[in-house]
Every structure is written in C-alpha cells, then in structure tokens.
Design brief:
By secondary structure, this protein is of the alpha/beta class. It has helices at about 50-55, 70-80, 115-130, 145-150, 160-165, 185-195, 220-230, 255-260, 265-270, 275-285, 305-315, 325-330, 445, 455-475, and strands at about 5, 25, 40, 60-65, 110, 130-135, 175, 195-200, 205, 220, 245-250, 290-295, 320, 360-365, 370-375, 380-385, 390-395, 395-400, 405, 415, 420, 420-425, 425-430, 435-440.
Length: about 500
C-alpha cells in the first residue's frame, strides 16, 4: 500500500533525497518543480518504506490506508499526476560541491531576516562551509513568514518553525534580534563587517488596487498579522463588531485563509497559536458570509487546490459558487489537478442574496471590483461583469491581491518588481554592476510568489552563486590585502 502526499505539503523536497526508488516528483531538476501545489508519490513505484513520511518536516505524507475520508482525494491526486505523464525514476547524476570548496575564504556571513528563505540560506552555508552565520531581524522573535504568515489552524504547516529551531542555536550561528537593517545598522556597515551579506527581507506591502472611491479596503495582511499576533499589529487593528458580511478582493491562499478563519468554529481554534485577542473577537463575531472575489474565471484561480479542497471538505460551513453563467459552467470542464476543481461539486448561489445558513463562503468569479460603497461605514462593494455593475453587500472589505517588497535604505530597489534589484540573486547597483558580497533570496529576490518550500531551491541557487564568487575570488587574489570583488581591502 503506497503513501500519498496531502494538503500540508510545503514543497521543500526534503522527502526526495530519502526515497530509495526515486518515486517522488517533480524533482528540482524537472520543469514542473515549483509549479505544482504538491509533490506527488507514484503509487506504482512506491515500495511502502515510509522514509519520506519520516523526513517530511510538516507531516504531509501519510499511508494511503490511513487517509481520513476527507483526505481520500489525495490518493487520487497523487496517482492522477502520473496518469498521462511519463516519469523517469532513474537517478540523475550526483551533484557534489566543487573539489576546491575548501579554499573558499569565507569566514563571516550575515543573513538579514529569519524567515524560511533566510533559514534555508543559512542551512546551505553551514553545510558547505566553515563560516559563521549571524542573523539580523528587526522583530524580537525569529520565524518570519513561518511564524507570522501561516494561519494558526494550519498546525502541521506551522511545524516548519520547529524544523528551523535547531538552526537558531547552532554553534556557528549568532542571533541579533531587534536590530533593523537600514535603521540601526546600514547595509554599508554590514558589508564592512562581513564577507558576504544575504538579504531575506520578504515582501511587506500590498500590491496596488485602483478603486474609484476614496474608501480603501482593509489589508488582508493586517488581518493575518492580527490573528497570528504579529508585534506590529495592535490587538484592536481589526474590529469585527457589527460585521456580518465580508468581501475579500483576491482569490489566493491568503484570501482563503481569511475566509476560513472568519467563519471557523472558535472551539476548533482553541489550542492553536492564534492570538488571544483574535480568539476573543472571533468568539463574539457575527460574521455569517464571506465572499471571495476573483476578476477572472475559475481556471485562473490563484489559490492552491489543496486549500480549496480543505474548504469544500469542511462540512460545518457550506461553500457555494457565484458568477456569470458561462464562467460558472467552466468549472465542470476543469481537470482534476486544477486549483478550482473541488468547486465543481458545490451548489451555485446568487450574491447578494441573503445567506440561508448560519455561515457560508461564496466564491464569486468573473467580477472586477469598482468602488467601495460607504455611508458612515462600509455598506458594500460595487463590482462589474459582462452584464454591468452590481453591488455585493458587505460590512468589511478586505484586500488580498498579493504582496510586494519595500525599499530598504541603502540597498538598490526595483520599484517595478517590488524587489531588491538583482540578477539571479546578486544585488545590482545603480551602475548595473553587482555589489560586492551582497545577495538576496526569497520574495525579496523573485517577488511574492511561491510558498515556504519554494524558498529552499531558491536559497540554494543563491548560495551556489555566493560560493562561486568566493571561490573565484580566492583563486585570483594574490594576498589577503589585495582588493577584490568579494573581499574588501578596507576591512581591518
């Protein structure tokens, strides 16, 4: 009986290296890697050894015979991935560090940030070199997105934090918490103190959302920080008093998190890492309906299939679909692997009709937000579709349309992309040349896309560049006092 990978998959590929028959795909050297919601186990090749389940940092791998009724679909999904896809289970050529890696003159590396991208970077550095790593974070507690970006009811996914915890007490690691780079210390000062600096500063702004009204939606990012207890978000930042209907603009995983938490049975959140003030507010909440709004059809949904499946499988809160007839009918033609395919089995309902149940979640497709209606408070959201403009009643409008980075003082910034200016992870200066010893990983490198595990391959690629630069410098530097691309003669 084979194993199956389920909803919690973080895509960091820890399971791949322990599989004795190479039956987990896509692998990092395959085109699909980073583009699928999950990794998948080939049931025809799996030998039922369980090594992958032991290695998984988020408990996402389960024996098929032990899948709960709501998880049975993952046995089908794992098998479906291989149905029309030829996969070579032969091992590729092994990859080794450069033979002269021991010659790298790398003593001290700074990593700015303590989220997943930062942690994967430090892990790769500690594994391949003898360098010490110093983490810098403006917050008092480490974890970044793994701590303050993962919903509290995703308890298995949040275990990735435990996976990184041993890193923070490693003998070659120093933690400098409560230190804000760009304020308390400059990038220039870091470059003078360390052989290399890797920036893993994430993305902390919302993407622009033009609306034809002065009223603005509340950022879903604020809601996430509110229920995860982010130190920058006040306990009263979200006011749910009098809120019965909520519209979330955007249909990525953050939008689904918001919908799920706002309609959750509060008793199910007790014992999770949810902030006490959010738990108290939700206990007294009267939210009865959350509409998740998407401009395009279900085939373009930004959420993952596993997150959608989890909402559909949650029997306590009905899920319905709304939108123009031609768009809703498209659900039936989606392949099983499509993000919105679980919605093909749910009822179609009209919005803004009064909710007929205590609570429900509405997926509304093919509607573009135009303006927030307000009269001393939010009254609704005007949306436009092929039939014209209509109003969805709402007491609260949330924006979950994606994130972008903020400029860090002293560091080149690409305003168009919302990232640190870089080429493949090397930070690029105003003159177009790489900044010596400066690198970037994660969302600050590639934009706010991909989940926790996607940062692992990304970080390892940047570390490979860093080591290649260091090795090239070591081989061309005649003496330790000579100025070079990687090390600075100004350092004493």
């Amino acid at each position: 009986m084979a194993f199956a990978i389920t909803q919690n998959c973080c895509n960091d590929a820890s399971c791949l290296s322990v599989c004795p028959v190479n039956c987990i795909h896509p692998t990092p050297d395959e085109p699909d890697f980073g583009k699928t919601d999950l990794l998948y186990i080939d049931p025809r090749t799996c030998i039922d050894c369980g090594a992958c389940a032991d290695a998984c940092p988020v408990d996402a791998i389960t024996r098929v015979s032990r899948l709960s009724p709501s998880q049975q679909v993952y046995a089908e999904l794992n098998a479906d991935y291989y149905k029309d896809r030829p996969v070579d289970h032969a091992w590729g050529a092994p990859v080794f560090p450069p033979a002269d890696i021991g010659k790298v003159a790398l003593r001290r590396v700074a990593v700015v940030g303590t989220g997943p991208a930062a942690c994967y970077t430090a892990t790769a550095l500690l594994r391949q070199t003898d360098a010490t790593v110093t983490f810098f974070d403006r917050l008092p507690t480490a974890g970044g997105l793994a701590r303050y970006g993962v919903a509290p009811d995703h308890t298995s996914t949040r275990r990735i934090g435990e996976h990184f915890r041993s890193l923070f007490v490693h003998s070659r690691v120093t933690m400098r918490m409560g230190v804000e780079v760009g304020v308390d210390i400059t990038p220039e000062q870091l470059s003078a103190e360390f052989d290399a600096v890797v920036y893993a500063v994430g993305a902390d702004r919302d993407r622009a959302l033009p609306l034809g009204d002065e009223a603005v939606p509340v950022s879903a990012r604020l809601l996430v920080g509110w229920y995860t207890g982010h130190p920058d978000v006040a306990a009263d930042a979200i006011d749910l008093s009098g809120v019965e209907r909520v519209v979330v603009i955007g249909n990525g995983n953050v939008a689904l998190d918001a919908a799920r938490i706002l309609t959750a049975d509060v008793d199910d959140l007790v014992g999770t890492d949810i902030s006490p003030h959010a738990l108290a507010a939700l206990r007294n909440s009267s939210v009865s309906e959350v509409t998740v709004l998407g401009r395009r059809g279900p085939e373009f949904a930004a959420f993952t299939r596993s997150e959608c499946q989890a909402l559909v499988s949650r029997r306590s809160v009905p899920v319905v679909v709304d939108g123009p007839d031609d768009i809703v009918s498209a659900l039936g033609s989606l392949p099983m692997s499509a993000s919105a395919s679980p919605l093909a089995t749910v009822p179609v309902a009209s919005v803004p009709a009064a909710s007929e149940t205590a609570r429900r979640i509405v997926f509304s497709f093919g509607r573009t937000p135009v303006a927030i209606r307000h009269d001393g408070g939010v009254r609704g959201l005007d949306v436009r579709d092929a039939d014209g403009t209509r109003t969805i009643a709402a007491d609260l409008v949330l924006q979950a349309t994606g994130y972008r980075g903020s400029p860090l003082p002293g560091l080149p910034f690409d305003e168009d992309r919302g990232t640190v200016r870089n080429v493949d992870g090397r930070v690029i200066g105003e003159d177009g040349d790489p900044l010596a010893g400066a690198y970037v990983v994660g969302w600050a490198k590639r934009g706010a896309s991909g989940g926790i595990g996607d940062n692992k391959a990304d970080a390892e690629r940047t570390v490979d560049l860093l080591l290649a630069d260091a090795l090239a410098d070591s081989s061309t530097t005649a003496s330790t006092t000579r100025r070079s691309v990687f090390r600075r003669s100004a350092r004493k």
